[in-house]
């Protein structure tokens, strides 16, 4: 028999170990979750749109990020709150699926949760809100289909003008004022590597090389690759070159088994050294005889091997990253050989020119393939500091991802908050036709769309109330394409401003937001089975932590 003194507590305490935390009910669980998500979206919201402010984030490795890219901000913040993490995951899903619109996903989800809190305080049950929000998102997707610009579904992805038109707003939201320089660069790079079937476009084929110095106007596109290191030998330029790639390095390899060599005289020692030399020379000569003019090594290049490469007029490059080596093989059509040996003709790659150039004080190796059908293009970005270059790279990534999306679905809808106001107007009309309690949730969902024009106006220093009311007035008059011109601070037709958003970006951003919000609202209890402030459950005995 267990004595009464040893009896565990009552209720949920009797079931869980000592030190657990248990939160339940509206006040403790639902509203606290909503509060955490609202805080997260408040951080990203001020970075929304072309006039979005930058955030300075210093991560756990003391690396500094200065950016207005929401995906980077939330990734580096290392959010711990379980409910806010759901929003982070929604933003990450958007970034991986489309590559743009992560900020809209997180900010819109935060706005929906804020409206849900108002409804809960009015007395609605979270289940009714979820039903209303689900009806609203389904109706939103129907309305989005109506707003698609006629004729935009047929697009030639090799037409630079059409590509730039669809890419502008994605690039401008990261680098406002620079989009006219960046978009043509990104469009050129993407069109060069676009395969016969555009749906198979691979984002990894557009590389970015960041070189400090100069300005954005010095940036160029190279057909081929730009390696940020110098050639190993004295030969710095080769034209129309066949290329041999050795993944295991160009050096005398140690034997598989250990052995001992007994040397009795100086003569034997000399002969031993000569045989090693002769063997290396034989290998390098074999490579030269195969017709190769350039040797690319994936590991160390030995001094003796380099000496013989010079003698046989071979250019030597070293690429230590195996991913970069794979891309190099893709660019030149070479096959990486594991050990130093004579390559077959079909294992050799080809490049029009391999040359070492000096750009802004840095020596880089440029591998060019001007003939059609090359599979890698590089955007060489120039800028004054590393932070600026990192942010430019994010803008280029957004442009490339937008190109990938338009290869699959090129439909466009009005940008500059024109779509959001039209959605808000039509959803409000739809909510009035509903009879149940969920009509309040649908009306709040419609109101949430005002967050976009309000945030765009506030970030640009305009009067948000004036802008939203004049947008509603224009849309009520039937001008569905009227959005905000942030430069002049007035409402204009977006087809004149040429601000268009991709349909798929908006579709997935709104869908992921609504899904994340419904997931957060469905939670009514939080049970943490680990002691508060105690060691983490996943802590290893050595004191290290598992990665999340």
Automatic annotation (TrEMBL):
It comes from the Eukaryota. GO terms for molecular function: ATP binding; ATP hydrolysis activity; ATP-dependent protein folding chaperone; unfolded protein binding. Gene3D superfamilies: GroEL, GroEL-like equatorial domain, TCP-1-like chaperonin intermediate domain. CDD domains: TCP1_theta. Transmembrane segments: none annotated. Keywords: ATP-binding, Chaperone, Cytoplasm, Nucleotide-binding. Belongs to the TCP-1 chaperonin family. This is CCT-theta.
């Amino acid at each position: 028999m267990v004595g009464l003194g040893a009896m565990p507590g009552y209720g949920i305490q009797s079931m869980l170990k000592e030190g657990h935390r248990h939160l339940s009910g509206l006040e403790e669980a639902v509203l606290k979750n909503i509060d955490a998500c609202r805080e997260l979206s408040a951080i990203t919201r001020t970075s929304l749109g072309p006039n979005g402010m930058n955030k300075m984030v210093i991560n756990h490795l003391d690396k500094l990020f200065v950016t207005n890219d929401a995906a980077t901000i939330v990734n580096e913040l290392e959010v711990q709150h379980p409910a806010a993490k759901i929003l982070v995951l929604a933003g990450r899903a958007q970034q991986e699926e489309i590559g743009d619109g992560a900020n809209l996903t997180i900010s819109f989800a935060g706005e929906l949760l804020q409206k849900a809190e108002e409804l809960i305080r009015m007395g609605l049950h979270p289940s009714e809100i979820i039903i209303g929000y689900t009806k609203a998102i389904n109706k939103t997707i129907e309305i989005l289909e109506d707003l698609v610009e006629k004729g935009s579904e047929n697009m030639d992805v090799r037409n630079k003008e059409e590509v730039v038109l669809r890419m502008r707003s994605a690039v401008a939201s990261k680098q406002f004022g620079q989009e006219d320089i960046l978009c043509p660069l990104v469009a050129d790079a993407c069109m060069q590597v676009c395969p016969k079937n555009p749906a198979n476009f691979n984002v990894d084929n557009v590389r970015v090389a960041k070189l400090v110095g100069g300005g954005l106007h010095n940036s160029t596109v190279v057909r081929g690759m730009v390696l940020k290191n110098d050639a190993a030998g004295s030969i710095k330029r080769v034209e129309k070159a066949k290329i041999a790639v050795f993944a295991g390095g160009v050096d005398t390899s140690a034997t598989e088994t250990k052995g001992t060599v007994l040397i009795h005289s100086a003569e034997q020692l000399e002969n031993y050294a000569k045989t090693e030399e002769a063997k290396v020379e034989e290998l390098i000569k074999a490579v030269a005889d195969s017709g190769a003019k350039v040797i690319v090594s994936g590991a160390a290049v030995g001094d003796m091997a380099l000496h013989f490469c010079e003698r046989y007029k071979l250019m030597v490059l070293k690429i230590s990253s195996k991913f970069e080596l794979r891309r190099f093989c893709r660019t030149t059509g070479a096959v990486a050989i594991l050990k130093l040996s004579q390559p077959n003709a079909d294992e050799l790659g080809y490049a029009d020119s391999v040359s070492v150039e000096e750009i802004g004080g840095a020596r880089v190796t440029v591998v060019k393939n001007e003939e059609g059908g090359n599979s890698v293009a590089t955007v060489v970005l120039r800028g004054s500091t590393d932070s600026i270059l990192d942010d430019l790279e994010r803008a280029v990534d957004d442009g490339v991802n937008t190109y990938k999306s338009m290869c699959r679905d090129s439909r466009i809808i009005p940008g500059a908050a024109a779509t959001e106001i039209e959605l808000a107007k039509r959803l409000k009309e739809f909510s009035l036709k509903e009879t149940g309690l969920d009509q309040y949730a649908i009306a709040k969902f419609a109101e949430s769309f005002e967050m976009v024009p309000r945030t765009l106006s506030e970030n640009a220093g305009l009067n948000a109330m004036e802008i939203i009311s004049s947008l509603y007035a224009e849309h009520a008059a039937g001008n569905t394409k009227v959005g905000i011109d942030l430069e002049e601070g007035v409402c204009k037709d977006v087809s004149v401003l040429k601000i268009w958003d991709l349909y798929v970006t908006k579709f997935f951003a709104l869908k992921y937001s609504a899904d994340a919000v419904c997931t957060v609202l469905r939670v009514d209890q939080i049970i943490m089975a680990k002691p508060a402030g105690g060691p983490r459950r996943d802590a290893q005995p050595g004191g290290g932590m598992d990665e999340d």
